[in-house]
Design brief:
Structural class of chain B: alpha/beta
Distance between the termini of chain A: 18 Å
Strand order of the largest sheet of chain B: 6-7-8-3-9-10
Number of helices of chain B: 9
Order of helices and strands of chain B: EEEHEEEHHHEHEHEEHEEEHEH
Number of domains of chain A: 2
Largest sheet of chain A: 4 strands, mixed
Oligomer: heterodimer
CATH topology of the largest domain in chain B: Rossmann fold
CATH architecture of the largest domain in chain B: 3-Layer(aba) Sandwich
Distance between the termini of chain B: 36 Å
Number of strands of chain B: 14
CATH class of the largest domain in chain B: Alpha Beta
Shape of chain B: elongated
Radius of gyration of chain A: 32 Å
Strand content of chain A: 5-15%
Helix content of chain B: 25-40%
């Protein structure tokens, strides 16, 4: 192996990828798609949640103040996303003209809605809500919650309870979701955890395959453009294969790094605020450094395995059509992880999960899934890494032997028997 | 002087197929050397073994008298028969990349890339992608890629196949120039005319074996036979009966007389003037094609 040649080849492959439009289109398209998937629905809902200016006419003179407290608490809990600006309007003797005036203020868009509280209605557990749009379900739910809390307190006090005790007894409950792992507990959302596991699995899966296939197409291109023998006069076949795999893999790592950086920005506090409509206490999943580290290591291992295999296929055949038949063999191994995806997600400690994630060709995909869901025991991770590395080494040895013969072979499509004969050539 | 390149009974087989049985030859410094042979004779395999693209089963390859190491090949320029360029790369990037594989840094190679492109009239095409160039332009770029690192030894496999006539001329000029600088050139071909015009030395291989090797002029003298060109009037039917004449070949109004190897032209002429009006009788330069066909036929018998 000559490092300088290896570097030159790898550099060319890397730059060729980074200069192609396809690289940047896919780099941008994937996060945009994922972000659209995650954020767009929330943005649409969030629009309905902007703070509302509300006028309250409290003819009981008891509820408004407590309502204000309840709404303040809600605003605090949701990081100001569900907030109401309350304007307490003194009741006037002329009920009809006051109601007409309030309607006019809504039409003039001075206020979004007005609430009418009087004792008769309250006795029937009812409060009036007047707005141009009365289908704003989430706002109304929030308001109902706050009103109920306020009215309950009023009633409890009326029944003779000490206001202080009432306040203490009726304090609301927040749900703090905590993920338990051996490395220590950390606050994380259940829904967010699923999304994270899925995203990590998908990204690893797609990049491994896409970049593995790129290696195959690259080798085929060198064969069909007949540039390969020009290179072989100065570069040993192994250096050529290794340089190509490394260069393309580096492009893959670059893309993943861009995605992780994007993810880091998206989960930054400012952006998280947009998503605070999630049930109180839910936090966005954050990429822990240890997960990112495992992700990169598993990508490298998985990529090397598949890329070498694809390089071998590319070298043995003459065009993408021929190669595709053989490449479909690889797809079988690649589809199987999907079958185990949900069972592992549900029970990451089951025997099935442990066994399948230790099978070398599945380890990259399934181990990253397990790590994302629940950190597996260290010995399992190390064993998985060891087995996959060993198999990678074997794969590289086997494929390099076929590659060095295959790249100079044109014409007939080789049979499996012939490929085996190439392996045994001196 | 140590030969620039020497092969000592090099051989290679693939499974049951013997591609090169045993080939030996020596290429003197500063010469143009032709590796000749019919298709399938083993020329490409031989050149690939020189370049360490295929490992020989046995035999020795010596560069400047020393066993060849892969690292030495950076000082060799090789143009394979199956050649091509990266279609999506620009001309300059492509050439800088090839130079880098030969150990030249990009900024070291850029000035000479520029001057080479100027020399072959492609100065305006440096920033263009290879796929935008015509076939003839790509051939020029390919040749520059082979000699950009100023190798001491050039190895060209069928360099003229597929070249348009203009590029053929350009290639020949470049090779002649290159030899003038004291460099050594080996090329393979099955077209004898080209070899005859360009080569100082030749090696003829057939079915994987060397059947002829040495200086072209010596070989011609030794194996060219003894043939004369005759233009004459009279009873040409009797030519076959003349003593010393092996065969008379008629071409339009001229006759090619193949004489017995030890027959003298003067004796034959004396006989001829007895019954013919001789307008022209002249020793004919043997052509390589004849030697080639004869040698291959003899070797296979």
């Amino acid at each position: 192996m000559r490092p300088s040649n290896f570097r030159t080849i790898a550099k060319r492959e890397y730059l060729a990828r980074l200069r192609s439009k396809g690289f940047w289109i896919s780099t941008i398209a994937l996060p945009v798609m994922m972000a659209a998937w995650a954020i767009l629905p929330s943005l649409m809902v969030a629009k309905a949640r902007t703070s509302q200016k509300l006028a309250v006419v409290d003819r009981t003179h008891q509820v408004a103040e407590l309502l204000q407290q309840a709404l303040d608490a809600l605003a605090k809990r949701t990081a100001d996303q569900v907030s109401f600006e309350l304007e307490v309007v003194q009741p006037q003797a002329d009920v009809d003209s006051q109601r007409a005036a309030l309607d006019q203020r809504v039409l003039d868009e001075e206020i979004a809605a007005w609430v009418w509280i009087d004792s008769e209605l309250l006795a029937e557990n009812r409060v009036e809500y007047h707005a141009e749009s009365v289908s704003n379900f989430i706002t109304q739910q929030a308001l109902i919650g706050a009103l109920s809390a306020a009215v309950q307190k009023v009633r409890l006090v009326e029944s003779g309870y000490d206001p202080e005790i009432v306040a203490e007894l009726s304090s609301s409950i927040d749900l703090d979701t905590v993920r338990i792992s051996e490395a220590g507990s950390s606050a994380e959302g259940g829904l967010g955890g699923f999304a994270l596991a899925f995203a990590v699995f998908m990204v690893l899966y797609m990049t491994t395959l896409i970049y593995g296939q790129q290696v195959m197409l690259g080798v085929l291109e060198e064969k069909s453009s007949r540039v390969v023998e020009v290179l072989l006069s100065t570069v040993a076949p192994f250096d050529l294969m290794a340089g190509k795999i490394a260069g393309i893999g580096l492009a893959g790592l670059t893309q993943i790094a861009i995605w992780f950086a994007t993810a880091a920005v998206l989960t930054a506090p400012g952006v998280v605020a947009i998503m605070a409509f999630l049930p109180a206490g839910t936090e966005l999943p954050t990429l822990s450094p240890i997960l990112v580290l495992h992700f990169f290591l598993l990508f490298i291992l998985g990529y090397f395995f598949y890329a070498t295999f694809y390089a071998m296929i590319g070298s043995a055949f003459n065009n993408p059509q021929e190669a595709q038949q053989m490449a479909s063999l690889a797809v079988i191994f690649v589809v199987l992880p999907w079958i185990f995806f949900l069972p592992i997600l549900n029970d990451p400690d089951s025997t099935l999960a442990v066994v399948t994630s230790l099978i070398p060709i599945f380890t990259p995909f399934l181990m990253v899934l397990r790590i994302a869901v629940k950190m597996p025991p260290t010995w399992q991770i190390l064993l998985g890494y060891f087995l996959t590395t060993a198999m990678c080494a074997g794969m590289i040895w086997l494929c390099a032997r076929i590659y060095r013969v295959g790249i100079l072979m044109y014409g007939k499509k080789p049979s499996l028997k012939e490929l085996w004969r190439w392996v045994r050539y001196a | 002087m140590t030969p620039s390149l020497e092969l000592q009974s090099v051989g290679k087989s693939f499974g049951n197929l013997t591609a090169v049985d045993s080939v030996s030859f020596a290429v003197p410094q500063g010469t143009i050397y032709g590796l000749l042979g019919p298709n399938g004779a083993g020329k490409t395999t031989t050149l690939r073994m020189i370049m360490d693209i295929i490992a020989p089963d046995f035999g020795l390859v010596l560069l400047n008298g020393h066993p060849r190491h892969r690292a030495d090949l950076a000082r060799v320029g090789y143009l394979p028969e199956e050649r091509g360029l990266y279609r999506k790369m620009t001309v300059v990037d492509q050439l800088a990349f090839l130079a880098e594989l030969h150990g030249l840094r990009r900024r070291e190679s850029l000035p000479s890339i520029e001057s080479w492109l100027e020399r072959v009239e492609l100065a305006d095409w440096g920033k263009k992608k290879v796929e935008e160039l015509s076939k003839g332009m790509q051939q020029k770029v390919q040749l520059i890629g082979t000699i950009l690192h100023d190798p001491d030894l050039l190895i060209l496999d069928e360099p003229f196949s597929g070249l348009d006539p203009i590029n053929q001329g350009l290639f020949k000029d470049l090779l002649a120039d290159y030899r003038k600088q004291g460099k050594t050139i080996i090329f393979s071909t099955h077209i004898m005319e080209q070899a005859e015009k360009l080569c100082d030395n030749i090696c003829l291989i057939s079915q994987g074996r060397t059947i002829l090797e040495g200086e072209l002029s010596t070989i011609k003298r030794r194996l060219g036979g003894n043939s004369y060109r005759l233009i004459a009037d009279g009873d040409l039917e009797r030519l076959d009966e003349v003593k010393g004449v092996q065969q008379a070949l008629f071409h339009d109004n001229t006759v090619k007389l193949l004489l017995e190897p030890d027959a003298s032209g003067a004796d034959v002429l004396e006989e001829l003037v007895g019954f013919l009006t001789v307008h022209e009788f002249r020793f004919q330069e043997p052509d390589l094609e004849e030697i080639f066909i004869k040698a291959v036929r003899d070797a296979t018998q």
